[in-house]
């Protein structure tokens, strides 16, 4: 499955290990904001190994390592529902590097993501199942990074006439319902957590959104995925792909602009999650010259951002469950939470924006009893910020000072 170079690189990298952590920690917060916006003052969070055992005003237990964060506000570890950890730091040189090189350089993306306060990600496409390997290296403690849920190769219509002529299909490729069923099963057999379909054009400077996968193909993949106990996300920049994805029963919709009222109402009714990824087009706009985009690209991106934002505004008003996803790629890591500013522009309160990256995202992942809250029994994913995140969402974006993931302190930028 893996090329020799990738395997060799992985063998060489197993010496990277997660930081050691004491069995019992007691973390003192001046304020703790849970994902519903409720504020507790002067509380101690007790962590045993990688789980939270209590949140109370009681004194730390005897023998615990005490971490005094009383000058900070605690929030749950954040969830970024759309990333691309293995795409490398620069689109202009990516083609000249091996997949192993992209994966090794992806360690920087992992660390920068943790530094933004994100302790869990859903990674949304990778070559040669690099994301599966990256996830497993993190889970084994060999690498430091956020908890990862991965999709392997995104499903898509064949991109070459040679495939249509009968040559072997590429990973995730297919034409027709039967081949999309096969492709979904192939990814699940490879050990992925979610399935993704690329249902339209759209990426980088391309904001066209032409539908590329039929309803019948989407439905076949959705049914196969659900039959095997997994969830499925469908990428569509344009409205027709979103409409068919909703009809087909997708669990989440990625991107999306120009959504009509009937489609939005159906998303709310079916409890389909919406991950609009508004900010990634701002990133492409900011880097248009560096990425050598064609003339007119910045104007097209600005136009799409406005339409994407308007669809998000309508979705929030209609009660659709909107989730933070950065679509972080290349050098965007560390900016993972800037999406929250767009959500506030779209009508969310700061508390609702925080929920989009905690409880709502955890519910989308089917992990609502394990991540997204600071509560007994949950994973010890906790972030300390400077300031009041319920008054200003910028506190979450700019003022992360300390991060615990899975009971281990992985970021500490407090003033000494």
Continuous helix count: 14
Q: What strand line-up does the widest sheet have?
A: 3-2-1-4-14-15-16
The second-level CATH architecture of the largest domain is Alpha-Beta Barrel
**Proportion of residues in β-strands:** 15-25%
What is the alpha-carbon Rg in Å? 21 Å
Which geometry do the CA atoms define?
Answer: globular
CATH-defined superfamily of the largest domain: Metal-dependent hydrolases
Please describe the biggest sheet, giving its number of strands, its sense, and whether it closes into a barrel. Answer: 7 strands, mixed
The assigned structural class equals alpha/beta
Tell me the span between the first and last alpha carbons. Answer: 47 Å
Helix content: 25-40%
Order of helices and strands: HEEEEEHEHEEHEHEHEHEHEHHHHHEHEE
Short description:
The chain is of the alpha/beta class. The chain has helices spanning about 5-15, 100-115, 130-140, 160-165, 175-190, 215-225, 240-250, 260-270, 280-285, 295-320, 340-345, 350-355, 360-365, 395-400; strands at about 25-35, 40-50, 50-55, 65-75, 80-85, 120-125, 145-150, 155, 175, 195-200, 230-235, 250-255, 275, 380-385, 400-405, 410.
